[in-house]
């Protein structure tokens, strides 16, 4: 199936924060309940060790993604606590205080807009991107990888969506049910009640963005081609697929991990 980069509502600057935050809160809820990304922890931990850092800069963080449960996984292991900075072009301000309270002093949510394509130099640390690499067209995706290499930072990209018939079918069946949840999800606020009369519209919007996310997702081969187009840097690249739920998930997580030859993270 060829990659198609169709329009997503979530990418549009005019998309109201009420809808965008509902979508990213739903994603955080589902990913932490389902524990989809737990399977990447050993690889992520090893990459941080190779980089000699415990500082993580998460890009396109939305409502925090899988980090609440991943932090628990990291905390359960030796190696020192992680310092996590969450960033987004359209920060989910309502979720920020709640996320920071999960690990006071260790999670910092940038309240200003941070474009993953134009990172300021003070954002040093191992870069992570969960469920969002598909937002970048190939030229932008390559530029994002190149910037990590030029800044000598490690990078980990993880995608739970997949470009395939089964993933599309699963999205078609689960998304319309899942979108009934946002009016009741934390951080709850009265404005969330506005989502109830909008439910049919929200369901269509969520389903569209979910299906388009699948159709935009890069395959491991496409990720390898992106990496191969970068200038030689001595980076070690690990690209592949991992099945979650004890290896039994119907579709895999696609991942790309890059670590510099010299720890500079
Ligand atoms: C599908 S959500 C994923 C959120 C989160 N990582 C998760 O796993 O739940 C995609 C996020 O990418 C953000 N985003 C899209 N383009 C971006 C860019 N150029 N720079 C920073 N964030 C961006 C959106 O605002 C949105 O919050």
Q: Any overview of this molecule?
A:
This protein is α/β, with parallel strands linked by helices and 265 residues long. It has a domain at 27-162 and 216-259: Vaccinia Virus protein VP39 (Rossmann fold). It contains 8 helices and 7 strands. The protein has helices at residues 17-34, 41-51, 67-75, 93-102, 138-150, 165-178, 199-216, 220-228; strands at residues 55-59, 83-86, 107-109, 126-130, 155-159, 236-242, 253-259. It has a 7-stranded mixed beta sheet, with helices on both faces. Helix 5 links the parallel strand 4 (126-130) and strand 5. The protein is globular, with a radius of gyration of 18 Å. The model has no long low-confidence stretch (mean pLDDT 94). The structure holds S-adenosylmethionine. S-adenosylmethionine binds next to helix 1. S-adenosylmethionine (SAM) binds at residues 10, 24, 27-28, 31, 59-62, 65, 88-90, 115-117, 130-132, 135.
How would you summarize this macromolecular structure in one to three sentences?
It is built from eight helices and seven strands. By secondary structure, it is α/β, with parallel strands linked by helices.
Oligomer: single chain
User: What proportion of the residues form beta strands (DSSP E)?
Assistant: 5-15%
Question: From N to C, what is the helix and strand string?
Answer: HHEHEHEEHEHHHEE
Small molecules in complex: S-adenosylmethionine
Radius of gyration: 18 Å
Flag low-confidence runs: none
Shape summary: globular
Q: Could you say what the CATH architecture of the domain at 27-162 and 216-259 is?
A: 3-Layer(aba) Sandwich
